[in-house]
Structure formats: structure tokens, C-alpha cells
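ARCHIVE CARD
Drawer: 12
Card no.: 0347
Subject: one protein chain, sequence and derived structure
Cross-reference: see card 0346
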Amino acid sequence: NAKNILVGKDPFDINQHAAALYAPYRNWGAPVEIALWDLLGKIVDQPLYKLWGGLRDRVLPYAAMWGIGTPEDRAEIAGRLKADGWRAIKLRSGFTTLKDDVRLVELVRKTVGDDFHILTDGNKAPGNADAGGDDPTLWNFKRAVDTAREYERLNVYWFEEPLPRYDYQQLKELNRLVAMPMAGGEGNWNINEFKDMLENECFDILMPEIINLGPLMSRNIGTLASAFNKQVSPHSAP
């Protein structure tokens, strides 16, 4: 356990601790590593982005809409979010029909205008349902392509996890067919899985789950992505 790994150790040996805490499907390792980084920041009285080099001091957040209401309800919520100062929203593509998935984005786009980012999440990576198990629809390749082309027409900022997680060849072909950025990786653990996704050109934006992988592994994935000229947007779903 974490006590056996850490008690009596120097917290600044963070690389050693992170390696010991990380293990695929060990759900407690990453939160402990996050706490260690927080401790280091407090010791030196600096925010972590400064300790990590201070590449930027501002990021653009998005409002993640988890539930699925009617397209009208969700468009109304999007309008309120924009009025509150948000500049981006992520929607779940979880309706039974393509028509409703597209209509949702059409109504949100009509409500928020063109100066607002819309992101969409298919939640199809598990291969048989969305992340919550509420949508049993497994998209075939045609459904994923048709959805992506409609979203591209509506200037969607990115399309997340439209096909099963390890279906690298179909993900690659889908990404080739549309210019809209594809995103994914929240359920992947091993750095070699992210390497496979990069080499197969599955995604333009990798999304390592910070709560599973921890900061060090996530930063390693970021370094790997930069070698392929790809971006990283850390995922967080505690």
C-alpha cells in the first residue's frame, strides 16, 4: 500500500515514488501521486505549472454536460452557460438515432453562435455501451462516419471516442476521412497503448485520465505526443 511505499522517504524523489505508485488498474496510485505533487508545491510555495516550466498560465475550460436531456433542454442550458461566461461545452452523443445526435448540435450551435466551441463525446470506446451504460447502441463504422461528417459541417471542435477503444484501424480510417480533430484515450493505461494510437494516427488529441495515470505518466504521454505533433487534453472523471 501507499504507506509501505512512502513512509520515511524524501518527497522530492517524486519520479521514484510515481513509478512505484503507478500500476495498471491500481486506482489509488494516481491520487496519492497527485497529493505528493501538491506537497512539493506547498514546500516551495509555487503552483505546479511553475514547477513544470510555466508553458502557459491560462487555459480554456469547457463545461462538460454529462446527462442527456432533450436537444431543446440542452440547447437552453448551453445558452445559459455562454451568458455566464463559458466559451466551450462538451455534449454527449448518446441518442438512439443519428438524427437526434445531429439535431442536438444544430440547436446548440443556433443558440450559442459561431464564437463558441462545441465538443462532442460518443462514449463508444468500451465497445458495447457508453461510459455510464445508458446507451446500448454500438455504432458501426458508417454511423461513426456519418456522425463525424455532420459534426464537421457544424464546426464541432473535436469528436471524442466514436468507436471501440482498441479498434485502431477503423479509428485511423475515420480520422483520415474527416478534418475535424478526433480525441480519445481516457480509458487507456499503458504508455504503449498511447504509442499505438499515435503510430496508427487514431487521434489528434490524446486524453490520458489523470485520476488513473497520475501526473508523471500523463506528462510522459504528452512528451510522446509532441513527437508526433499531436495535442494532449488531460481527462478527469473522478
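Annotation on reverse: Residues 106 and 154 are 7 Å apart (CA to CA). Residues 210-227 form the longest helix (18 residues).
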